[in-house]
Fold 3-phosphoshikimate 1-carboxyvinyltransferase.
Amino acid sequence: MRWPGGPLRGIAQLPSSKSESNRALIIQALAGGGELENLSDANDTQLMQRLLTDQQAPEFNAEDAGTVMRFLTAYLAATGRTTQLVGTARMYERPIAVLVEALRQLGADIEYAGQDGYPPLRLNGWHPALAADEPAELTVRGDISSQYISALLMIGPTLPAGLRLWLTGKVGSRPYIRMTQSLMQHFGATCRDLGTVLEVRPGAYQPADYTIESDWSAASYWYALVALGEEGSTIILPGLREHSWQGDQAIVGIMDQLGVATEFFPDGVQLTRKASAAAVEQDFSDCPDLAQTVAVVAAALGIPVAMTGLESLRIKETDRILALQTELAKFGATMAEEAPERFVVRSANFQVNGQQVETYHDHRMAMAFAPLALRGPLTVLGPQVVRKSYPRFWKELERAGFAVQEQG
Ligand SMILES: O=C(O)C1=C[C@@H](OP(=O)(O)O)[C@@H](O)[C@H](O)C1
Ligand SMILES: C=C(OP(=O)(O)O)C(=O)O
């Protein structure tokens, strides 16, 4: 990839939120109707949609999509299916015991078809062990993945007396839990957040229409481009809302410190370059998917950034901490654990001069490093990984003026 020079200007098309899309699809299936506008073209969403239309399949392949594996496990279990859930080799390294254990307590017969605690899974039906007059009470760890909690909440209204989830540990990715509750409420469910306990009342979902918002995690790469662009760089991103259910809207505040101003319009935002802070401190517990974007931008700008709340990064598409450390080192930056679970990114003489970035089957590695092409020639290996969440990413970069060449 190369940038011809000059400030970056234009309108970029974002994908729709895959998190909203994949929740809406599960809830729509349970509600038995409703129109979903603007569903994401991300592979994770297209896959969810395909799998939900062929429900008698002997096997469901969630590929590398965490939401698909976790949400479908709960959905297929609660709807009494006998089937298998499989995925990629990496999916078999991403834990699922917290969800399986909770579903077993609700009455699901689930077996591990491979290693205990991990997919693949065999679902052998649902044998409700629940009293019809008392809500099911479950204690669930919140410090591994919020997707287990979202998966359980979404099936809550279908249980005879509803569900009470007691959360333990440091609950990460909280905004994703709130997004689940908001979408459930949009489809007529009653759920309440009582602090450490989440309560879902029994009762059928009502079919409803919903228009999915654009994806704030995908927007973060355009923020990165403006932050690294020349003076005068500006980008318009349609489809983002000022009042969003997506926690990754936190990128607005983070990038304000890294030199990008955001102006909201009725249907989108405009990003412009501005002055940046001298150092940044950020907790990513609520927005783990932004960590790679921020680490790369800060390194390239030479702004030290102290990052906490990165625990869940080790069990995503790849070990994202190790991947960041390895790839940033190629440019002369370090990401050291200076105190337990506190990582500081520093760079002295950051140079982009033809490096090859490994992406480790992780869409966010590809998209987080791509903006560095503004600073020099760059090769991103395995570029097709972006299809997981943002299939048009490279095309949109070309439209913005980058020379993007596919090799091999
Ligand atoms: O519920 C969701 O849509 C997601 C929750 C987060 O995962 P964790 O809860 O595992 O942190 C996030 O990283 C992922 O991209 C999408
Ligand atoms: C972690 C991600 O997705 P998932 O967990 O759904 O695979 C992601 O999109 O960054």
Summary: The chain has two domains: 9-15+214-399, 18-201. The domain at 9-15+214-399 is CATH 3.65.10.10 (UDP-n-acetylglucosamine1-carboxyvinyl-transferase; Chain). DSSP finds twelve helices and 20 strands in the chain. The pocket of phosphoenolpyruvate (ligand 2) is lined by residues 65-67, 289, 316-317, 364, 389 (CB under 6 Å).
